[in-house]
Design brief:
Helix content: 55-70%
GO molecular function: glutathione transferase activity; maleylacetoacetate isomerase activity; maleylpyruvate isomerase activity
Number of helices: 9
Order of helices and strands: EHEHEEHHHHHHH
Largest sheet: 4 strands, mixed
Structural class: alpha+beta
EC number: 5.2.1.4
Shape: globular
Mean pLDDT: 97
Low-confidence stretches: none
GO cellular component, one term: cytoplasm
Radius of gyration: 17 Å
Protein name: Maleylpyruvate isomerase
InterPro entries: Glutathione-S-Trfase_C-like (IPR010987), Glutathione-S-Trfase_C_sf (IPR036282), Glutathione_S-Trfase (IPR040079), Glutathione_S-Trfase_N (IPR004045), GST_Zeta (IPR005955), GST_Zeta_C (IPR034330), GST_Zeta_N (IPR034333), Thioredoxin-like_sf (IPR036249)
Strand content: 5-15%
Number of strands: 4
CATH architecture of the largest domain: Up-down Bundle
Length: about 220
């Protein structure tokens, strides 16, 4: 048994972020798959770990920790090598700000429970849900691209040449965008950074297609 157990879903972009960070830091973990399509995240066993009934949840020797960004920052504090946040306060704030465009602006309105609610409560069909996803993902990607283009700290990755939590969020979101045909032609910097991320084995291993529950 590993030190950590990650309760997650292969296609969840928030789960991708955490898998990538664990892989980058060389931390072994037990992979606990939860099918969001079957509602396994709402089981009594999982709700005992995460009352929100969401993924991912990282079970640690200290207890259960939900919320992907909190997990990423905690991992960086207790396992600081390689770092996924800059050392300086401005750099850390900037990286968090970029990550939040994905994690707080795009993801909450586009996750599975929102798309299901649109269908069950308002009769939105598959194309309508895809259009909804494209609208909000496109708006967030445009904002992120504008930041990356205009701010001098942008380098090989979102913040210089160091892979950070902003890149993990970007990587996972762009993978998810592909499922809904989000037009990324207006985002050359994001596309370049994503291509860089795709070359990193730890991130490749975190991709949805490479998980044991992939369907």
């Amino acid at each position: 048994m590993s030190e950590f157990a990650l309760h997650n879903y292969f296609r969840s972009s928030t789960s991708v972020r955490v898998r990538a960070a664990l892989n980058l830091k060389g931390l072994a973990f037990d992979y606990i798959p939860l099918s969001l399509l079957k509602g396994e995240q709402a089981s009594a066993a999982h709700l005992a770990l995460n009352p929100s009934g969401l993924v991912p949840t990282l079970v640690t020797p200290q207890g259960s920790l939900p919320q992907s960004l909190a997990i990423l920052e905690w991992l960086d504090e207790v396992h600081p090598e390689p770092p996924i946040l800059p050392a300086d306060p401005w750099g850390r704030a900037r990286v968090r700000s970029l990550a939040h465009i994905v994690a707080l602006d795009i993801h909450p309105v586009n996750n599975l429970r929102i798309l299901k609610h649109l269908e069950t409560e308002y009769g939105v069909d598959a194309e309508g849900k895809a259009a909804w996803f494209r609208k909000w993902a496109g708006a967030g990607m445009a904002a992120l691209e504008a930041r990356l283009v205009s701010e001098p700290e942008t380098g090989r990755f979102c913040h210089g040449d160091q892979l950070t939590i902003a890149d993990l969020c970007l990587y996972a979101q762009v993978l998810n965008n592909g499922r809904f045909d989000v037009d990324m032609t207006g985002c050359p910097i994001i596309n370049r950074i994503h291509a860089e991320c795709m070359q990193i084995p730890a991130l490749q291993q975190a991709a949805p297609a490479n998980q044991i529950d992939a369907i």
